[in-house]
Structures
1.
Amino acid sequence: MSTTEEEIFKENIVLEYTLDAPPEKVWRALTVPELAASWLGTQEHRPEHRPEHRPEHRNDDPAYELLDTTPFSRVRYAWRDTGTDMPETLVTFEISPAPDGNTRFRLTHSVRATPPLAANCNGAPIARAA
Amino acid sequence: MYVALALAKKISTCLSLFMNDRLTPESEIFRALADPTRRLLLERLSASERNATELRDGLSISQPAISQHIAVLRGAGLIEEEKQGRQIRYRIRPEGLSPVVDWLTRYRAFWPARVDKLKALLKEMDQ
């Protein structure tokens, strides 16, 4: 079994870095829409602004939606590949203080997204923090 | 009567959502993978082909539930089956995984590039 297959079933992309900035600053870069847009190269799509599902409005830029945040520790985005009809995926950023005023930064991108409505008709819908 | 109507309405909503779901292979594949039990079944199958009983071995999941998961995985093209006498054996369908491999490849390149931009941004930002 190839490494790739193994990763598929764990289905996670996990990246870890130490950033040369305090957690509060990293936190702002993740949660202030203008700052996030500048490094992600994409805008936040809020549900109320979501364009109708019309092919002419689609492009290949991914889009994200801030799902929930734990101050200075965790931020989660619902990630959307707008160029395809892929369901949303889940991007989790975990940050914590590192020595010398730096930040330990861990990024997880997973297909274990907050499931869309249709995922299970028998269960109660899962409430989504907006 | 009222309950029956409400139930019928709920079922039709479910059905229409289900039909919408069938639009693209990608969305089926990713939804199939979004379930931890199904990922476990795939992990088992990637070690060797198995029948339903072997797949279920050691799991506290009912036979109908396993069948359901197998149906979802087959529907998404992630596994295939082969009749061997009275047995049905299941195995991974590697080509079914290619959209996931594409996704992984794309984001493995995407995120390090974005984190470089984040680092640059943090340098520019005021405290």
Note: The helical segments of chain A are 3-10, 23-31, 33-40.
2.
Amino acid sequence: MTPLIHSSLPACLALLALWGVIGLAGLLRPSSVGFAGRTLFPLGALCGVALAMVAASSLSAPPEQLTLQIGLPDLPMHVRRDALTSVFLFLLGAASAGISIFGAGYFRRGQGTAPGLLCLQYHLFLASMGFVLLADDAYAFMVAWETMALSSYFLVTTQHGLAEIRRAGFIYLLIAHIGAIAILLSFGVMQGGSWQFTFDAMRGAQLAPHWAAVAFLLALFGFGAKAGLVPLHVWLPEAHPAAPSPVSALMSGVMLKTAVYGVLRVTFDLLGTAEWWWGLVPLAFGLFSAVYGVVFAAAQTEMKRLLAYSSIENIGIIFAGLGLAIVFLGVGMPSLGALALIALLYHSLNHAFMKSLLFLGTGAVLHSTGERNLGRLGGLIHRMPWVAWLTLIGALALAGLPPLNGFVSEWLLLQAFLFAHEVPHTFINMLLPLGAAIIALAAALAAYVMVKFFGVIFLGQPREAALAHAHDAGVLERIGLVWLALGCFALGLLPTQVIKALRVVVEQLTGAPLAHQEEPWWLLVPLPDRHTSYSAPLFFAALSAIVILAIWAVRLFYHRRARLAAPWDCGFGRLTARMQDTAEGFGQPIRHIFGSFFAMKRELPSPFDSAPRYRVTVGDRIWQTLYVPIGALVQRVADAFAWLQQGRISTYLLYSFITLTVLLALVL
Amino acid sequence: MKPIEILTQLLEVFAALAAAPLFVGWINQCRAWLQNRSAPSLWLPYRGIRKLFQKDAVIAETASPLFRLAPYVVFGAMVVAAAIIPSMGTRLPFTAAADAIALVGLLATARVFLSLAAMDIGTAFGTLGARREMMVGFLAEPALLMVIFVASLISATTALPAITENLATQSLGLYPSLAFTAIAFTMVLLAENGRLPIDNPTTHLELTMIHEALLLEYSARHLALMEWAAALKLFNYACIGFALFIPWGVSTGESGPAALLASIPLLAAKLAVAGAALAFIETMLAKLRIFRAPEFLATAFLFAVLGLLVHLLLGA
């Protein structure tokens, strides 16, 4: 592909700066919804489209570097764009374009934060994510990383009037900072005694193997906290439902991917030589997260919490792919390693589109009904056909069904797992193929979750009378949804083109070329020597041709007579919408089968209750076994230190005096 | 693409479409014999489908377009699946487009549409059936994928025709790992096709239904397509079993029309035996409680994993 412009790095920086300017422009008229919504958000979306185009066209260009003389004196910021950056910039630009244009229609009433300020936070969030991808030294990276965390914190707490939203924001901020400390420490290890914090210096640093492992594990911890890897996932199901829907979409679809970018950057670029056994750590945590996330998603009764847990599942799949890639590359199987890396990059792209689409769909539902509890929704496909059918595309994609995009990346990952038994380490080579079984279980459960999600919200009969007044999404919102749905289709139907692009990234990142032969544009052959292929266009064409042929044949040979009647009620005669299966009911088999995952509390009514109530709360076991004890420990330590706080000025003066004396003694 | 390949492809699809109801009729007949009842006609499923096509459709007032679309999608998915599975020959041009994993995905697509359509009306039984169908589905799908994995490991590819060809042309065609996976596959087949012991295909009590509860609101042409698709699904599963475990007799490689012709009576014979065996299994078993279904399918999964480990340990 010929570059659109000669040098794309300045263009990328200019577009990020433009996002900043758009955000600042929001402050000109902070209380005007019309100005921020109708003018600035569409501009931000255009900026996203431009960024995606620049990133896509610069993908195969050689890496470029720049030094920006901003920030502290004598501490310039380095930026760099290579193929890995380009892919994630594309993801950021393309996904955020759909989300911004949806947001233009979404933020219509003043809720909590003033719209102008919200616009600033939102665009600052976008720009900082872009800068995270471009940063080429630890200083610039951490500044961008923190800006990203803080701006998203303020976005999460848009409705700061509610105590539970403030609590969700606090948990998010806390875990974001624990992660940031680990990342900072990881950079500290990687500079390897040179005290140069540019990424160039880290690439050149020769680390002892154990220090390299420490740096990797710290980075995995830090980025895993941002990505929501179990057991660092607790902020996700709190923060995503608390945020406005476009922000949830942005956080789940895009921000989690910056963590994936970070761990890829550290592992394959900055550390360079990854040992094979490192891969077992992300593999194990990833597989566990995948199952854990999807099992919890199946038990949720609130639509955005359900999607948040589903994000944990997808992040788990991505990290499992990462682990597999490290193992393959470490034992000298570059072709399979490249395949696993492509699978994980592909899944990151897919997840950005399909999860954003679903979050925006829930946003439209929330807007139109004011209801986020699945138990009070239903039948919305009649009232909101646009949102329903577009959300269905996202749901089918997330369920990993062919020919949509979710299937392609899971297919690639399963292909990689299939050959994991060739790894030359006994026991490991027997355990690895079982990972495929776990991925298969997660994918099958994802289909269960998506049937529950879509079926309970959009199908059936409205469970509340108020739903009869639900209205479909506005024009701008529809454009955003259509954009993301088209992305799902394009990524699903053109895998060969996407993989051709991702192959460049993998070659640049690891030097491990994916063996490839010239194949027709419609046929995907991941490993030429294995005789395995998949053709999404042909598959889709065959399926739709048979469906259309069947419809036509039935009409031609028979008839299309139909009459409407009341649904079958078994002669009972008083069937109501309340008798449909609820979200709780749909979760019941999961609670039964995976009972040991949950901390469940049941309240059963006694037979003599005049107003019987049945209540079940499904809690996260990790919260109670890990976080509560740590919280208690921190509390105890803090209490122990509290006696220092005497509350008298003379005591504090004494502390200052002792400190000064000790310092003087040290210096002299 | 040679004419013989296109011919094989078309023949497989049309044979599946034509023979699937007959296979169901044959199983019903065997069941009746084994249970000492007088058997219905072999052709009863055809008559049922024809009758349903001619009736006027009655559609619930609360149905959305998804409800009308779903039978066609489910039917289409099963036809495409029939095109992927090498039941007569392994030179199938379309199979480049979809391998065994895509086949599992295709079956999952059909299941998801079936369940969504059942939820569309908003009655208690429809949603209950959808929930149960999806539960059986998510338990059976990993087991099925592991079964396919073992066969794929033996042949180092996930392309079904290549697997079948490899297994059919081996001099020593017996693998201990495949013995375990065959048991697992049979269990998955029973569960996925709404057979005993998971579901009862002849039940008329709504509470015990899975598959029939999903179809409760369908009538006329939609029901006909759903019934036909269910028959096709059973036929497809049987053919997957043949392709993986008794592949002998399919026309492979460069063999000409004679081998293709010879494979037709052989397929019929395999189906006759498999149908009788299925009827026998169903006669011997009682229906399990719905919450024993996870145990049943977990056993299937364990058998498949055992097959995998046996293959990795013994290399066979």
Note: Chain A touches chain B through 80 residues (CB under 8 Å).
3.
Amino acid sequence: MSIEFSGITKIYGDVTANDDISFIIESGTIHAILGENGAGKTTLIKILTGQLEADSGKIIIDGDEIKNNAFLTKRNRVGVLGQDPLDFKNFTVRESFFAGLGKDKYWINNKNTDASIINHASNYGFVINPETKISDLSIGKRQELEFLRLLYNETQIIVLDEPTSGLTDDQKMSINLATKEAVKNGATVIIVSHKLMEVIENCDRATILKSGKFAGTFDMPCDPNLLTKAMFQNLSRGPQVKSKHHLNNENIRIDIPDYFFTKNTHKNHNEPINLQKGSIVAIAGLQGSGTEEFIRSCFEESNNYPKIKLFQKKTREIQKFQKAYVPSDRIEKGLFKDVTILEHFAILYYKNKPFVNWKSLSKKAEKHLTKLRVKGNLNNYPTDLSGGNQQRLMLSMLPNQSSLLLLEDPTRGLDIQSALDLWNIIMERVQTDILVVFNSSDTDEIEKYADYIVCFYDGKIRCHHPQSSNDGKNFINHISGLIESK
Amino acid sequence: MIERKNSTIIRFLSYLITLIIILTIVVVFLSMLNDNPFNVIISIGEGAFGSFARTYRTLLIFVPIALSCAALSVTFRSGMWNIGIEGQIILGAIGASMIARSIIGESQLSPLVSLSAGVLFGAIWGLISGILRTTSNVHEIFAGLGLNFVGAGLVIYLIIGPWKRIGVASTSGTDIFPQTAWLPDIGNGLPLPALLIVGVLYLFLYGMLRWSVFGTILKAMGSNPYAAPRYYINADKYIIYSFGLAGAIAGLAGGIQAISFYHKLVPSISGGFGFLGILIVLASSQKLHTSLIVSFLFSGMISAGPLLQIEYDIHSSVPWLLQAFVIAAWVFISYSSLHIKSAYFIRGLTNKFTTNLLGLIK
Amino acid sequence: MMLENSVATIISLSCPLILMVIGETISERVGVINLSMEGSVMLAAMLGFAVSVMTGSVLLGFICALLCGSTISAIIALFDVKFGMNQIVVGFILSMICINLSNFLGQSYVNIPGPRIPSINFGIMNEIPFLGKIIFSQNILVIFSFLSIFISWFFLFRTSAGLLLRSIGENPEAAKIRGVNVNFYRFLYVTVGGAFIGLGGAAFSLHAKYGWSDSHTANFGWIALAIVIFGGWNPVRASIGALAFGALQIIAMRLQDVFIELAQVLPLIPFPTMIIMLILFNRIGSSSGNWIPSTIKNSIIGLQPSA
């Protein structure tokens, strides 16, 4: 089925996620949608699948205009493979396969249905065991299974969102083969991806979205530089607030556990990173490449990732209360909706004391707020503030003895001006005695502010080096996986 | 949440609307029982406050309800459902009874020690709930229910077993405690000490929840426990504290029930006041002053129960039923912001009306 | 002989609980927890008895009880799906209303006689040793409840409709994206669950604990909720829990003559025992997927009950 997007627009408050997007996906092709984080890819796909409603514009499939959710309810016409497998963890393979289908009225005979799915799988070169519990499978296998399910249902439009993340090489090859088979059988496949090389190899065409707008459709194969140029636009190079580096003599050492490295990582991976306080470190990588987990692991232990240890003065490990962590989900993980701003400060500064001196706290809090230019007064609730102000609020709530500032995607959801403002504040006020570590997929931001760059690709570190080095200047290629291991 | 942003007029109007709706429900409900609902309402007043003795009885019912509400305000503040409150009340009563029946019961200090024991027992029961909840996520409600049953079983066992009345084991309760063990009252029976306890506790809680760090942290945990690590707070710790505190207050209620209202231990020592407290706090959006007022009104209704039964042949379940309906309506109104939307609507109407009127005059 | 009798009695007396846990299992499997069960069971029991006394027909009593149970469950589903109100708040309030409503409306039916459920004569089947006594001498209701265990199990785990039901409770997002009309099925199955709960109520007042009295079915709603979790949201395991509970009750009854005090307490012991076992199982089995319906998990953790 051919899919035409015509004038699709979707606006969230200040942000225009999709801005009058129009292009065509030909029937029976593998068509990629490329773009930076925040370019609008996910929104567009969600509009296609009916999860979101466009504010204006229409979607035309095989010549017929689609009225929103009608598409999804005709099951099996659109299938989605998201980054997180949309399956049922506690079901068996067999159950997850057939759930929601309504294909067979009764389902008494396990042997027959088992045989049919095993058969189906082997046609594509996959081996599955219907008895296995989904939770026992790796993410890669679960994605494979989902794909098989879509093929089994003869889904006509298959949407793959970052299909090969978390997969082994073998699995990647299998998925790619399966994709080609699906197309042979008449399906149209849409792939949302960051991986330029894979897109060039496997897709027929690629459409680029940039800042919510359509930025061109390219036939594959094509010169990767063409693509990167279209994808990563240089923002208006505002006044270069190049850091007045108040570089402390104090050194901070980051010990990164082996977990984050692979055989593809370049030469210097085993060396710990040594930086001076006052530096800014960027953990660069496209969305989903593992940068957020890195930042989080710097802050605390988690179930999935080993802790990253940071040391000051050679041997003293930086304690939790010396680290300030600003999560990307501001409201969900960083602020309390029903608590006033003043009370936030109370929690931070007085939590071990019985009584609060509200007067002196107010004064202190006001000082912090003005220092960081937060627009809002102490009796406001976090939700009263704009996104940019929330971010500044979180920055203003730094514990007294911070040595480390961890910023998760600091300018996420901020408009250009707020983002600039935020960085000005970080550079002017915050940076002096603190090591700033932030993750971002905004290459312009990284280029502008980072002294040191750690490049992530596909969940692991590719390399890390100062911005001033040659590798530093080419970091965009590293994070897109374009430069293979040396 | 919406209330913060509204002008005082809207807020006042919305309260008024809620009140009117609730009163309408009461009147309609009562008129289904009796031709003249207003007579019934007057009788409720009579039955609750008609004489000194009746008033004192009402107050004695008011105390445990108010204390339940206080306890629940703490746990709801931290975002928890303390359905185990009935068990905590029971354990408090058991603790107090234990002291009252012992040698200490003969001394003047008995009430003080009793109530302290009640607080302790209730707190422990609450802590168990809290610990179970933080270590095995789902079972906040089921742990609470289970502990309720354990408490109920325990109290029955004690009443017909080790603490049974001399001579005859009866489920009507233990022997009456010695007078020294009773919570003293003033004059003809005004339970002033009990009321003072409630008053002091409410003041303390109000201050604590509003102004102390602990109260603020509880509120934060109730709002978003996931943000806690960022502020170096262990969410679990505070949740356990809130359960412990709630249990302590509930235990106090149970203790007062034992040594003040009943002067002995009976199987139904918690009287359903725990669950009633849940209803009240839900409806009053955790506001302490509202809970206090509603507790008072409801205790009047319950206290008037016997009189209603005699005069109008109204079954004892009626006051409770009416209360449940009132709460249901109130929660629905609050949740759907019906009162606020109506307030805006009315204001809009009056604005239109006045502009039209002015237009006519000109 | 003694054993046969006891087993038969256990099966017979556990019938209401079995129906209740089957109903609640269905409801929770589709993601809705019915905290009103304590009240709705009581109300259904009262209505069932009252109607059958009024009309002389036991069947009508059961039908009314069934409708009562499904209506109350439907109300919870309505508030959850349509108004987005917290299931637990709605359930609890409904519970309180229904408990008192049943006492209020049931006043005139306290301790009066009424029609009984006829029993079926299976003829020679009765002569089968052991099985004959315990199964075939029961009345229709008990046999129905027994069959329901297997039918519900089969439905949930061996049919595609049941699979659909479970998928809604397991991961509603994934179900939605596969084109399942989550809201509709939630409504449907919660109501079906409620029907079973209603039947369970009537099974009390018209069979297991005949008649009506003040708070006649007290505590059984809460017990059923616990058993459902204890049974891992599986109708067979939950029913076994119900039977175990019934057994304990019988033991308590027999012991009553011997240990008076213990007899009073024994009926109450199963609840905490189960809760404790529940907690132990959860701690041991938490990583190996002790299945918790995701929507229920979200309802309970981090509740914000303030209106």
Note: The mean pLDDT of chain B is 88.
4.
Amino acid sequence: MSGVHCTNLIKRYGDLVAVDRLSFQVARGECFGLLGPNGAGKTTTIEILEGLVEPDGGEVQILGMTWRGHDRELRQRIGVQLQETQLAEKLTVEETLRLFRSFYHRGRTIDELLRLVELESKRRSWVGKLSGGQRQRLAVACALAGAPDLLFLDEPTTGLDPQSRRQLWQLLAQFRSQGGTILLTTHYMDEAETLCDRVAIVDHGKVMAEGSPRELIATLGAPRVVTHQGTLEDVFVALTGRHLRDE
Amino acid sequence: MNVERGGAWHPLVELALARLREFVREPEAVFWAFIFPILMSVTLAIAFPGGGNKPVLVAVEPGAGAERIRDALQHASGVTIRDVGTGNEARALREGDIHLLIVPTTPPTYRFDPAREESRVARLVVDDALKRAAGRTDPWAARENPVQVPGSRYVDWLIPGIVGLNIMGTSMWGIGFAIVQSRMRKLLKRLVASPMLKREYLLAQVGGRLVLLAPEAGVPLVFGVLVLGLPVRGSIAATSIVCLVGALAFGGIGLLLASRARTFEAISGLMNMTMVPMWVLSGVFFSSSNFPQAVQPLIHALPLTALVDALRNVVLDGAGLAAVSRELAVLAGWGLGGFAIALRIFRWT
């Protein structure tokens, strides 16, 4: 049974086609990465899958269910970290976790969640006083509060220092080792190579290429990798071009 | 503690607690909710000290005969002569520094604004004093029996209005700003991505503030009783219930106004557009019966009118809840209607 199944997703904003007949699947237990430059349609896609944005066309199945009619059940079983959310600054870490934990019928205790993301020492600190890495760990802890089967992460490590990134990777590896499924978006090729079983490179709302990082690197062919070992970044730039994408 | 929720309370409780915590950790918000009504009450206490016998303020224009008029008024009770300086009389009249200007013609000329109640009183008092000084004989002198009836003074009438105003202001601003802030920070979007029930979120925004209602309504009332001698004739239970229903009504309206707004500018505009007309129309500072008969049904359908009327009936006249059931129904209608519409049109993302 698939974790995520979407076919021919379409989303338009006025004249702009943000998502253009996009299809892919994520198997249970898999970590799948959506890669793409700014404005490629990654966030719109993941928000459609999270049931937050209504697509103009196409079909979505999450854990074998559609959003229409299974909203309550699906929300209990997925965990979500959004790109731009700022949690309430004047609540403490513990209060924030209690709030999110209260929405779920199952899951870890507050203490376990604090331990999981190594924020025990910050339990009584206001969210506004946390560093970027600590905030992100708290956001992930909120996503994990209901012991989800499927985790959606939108650029989970953007702006984090290397230590925080690695700690988050470890956390996600642990989640997967317990059978969890992950769908994430990222700009970082090393992150995709480390975490993802398969990736889709997305641009202009379309899937440009899909496969395991190794497969994609192999498609580059011999001539392009004479000077150094091919990386996923080479594939990315080859597919999406060298011009800058300023939002 | 709840094992099923990993140590957290029911989501409604956690949401309301979050709302309450955020509020009390915001010093400015606490100021507006608690300090403001005290300041307002103190100002009122200074403006309306005990007895209502305020002297009328008059000035006499210089000229022949001005001295005689001054002499005559010096001995009249309830008249205070002010020296405003030559040439300043018109300005003093306009700004209320004096209520009446006497020009020493024969007979004297009174210059005043008949639209001002104080000025009309001043005209009568001054005219009476001057005529008496000129040798008028009265057919008889009525016996006066002045009584100070607590509860009938302007300030007594005003305080329930201030309480209503405070409930309206704190409920609406508190709920509206918090929601718009959460929307701007995309916290609402994160919350609807969880299994949180939307109605519970909205309910908690209103409920989380009710804890603050006791001080918000209580501070001006207690101040009124202790400092201004406000008589509270109704039961505390009835007064509390009226305040509670009022807070729920304005909570529902606050939700409705905040349901779509994306910026503080937008919500401020909506709030002011809603509240300022009620400041004027709902009879907080002066009786709403001053407005034409044709608009009375509209005025009585306003939630602030209903709240202030109900509070005055209960606090000043000792009415029971049954006597203010119409007002309570108006308030409940606004609260439930606001909540139901807000739930339908609310912008989460």
Note: The interface with chain A takes residues 4-11, 13-15, 17-18, 21-22, 25-26, 182, 185-187, 189-190, 192-196, 349 of chain B (CB under 8 Å).
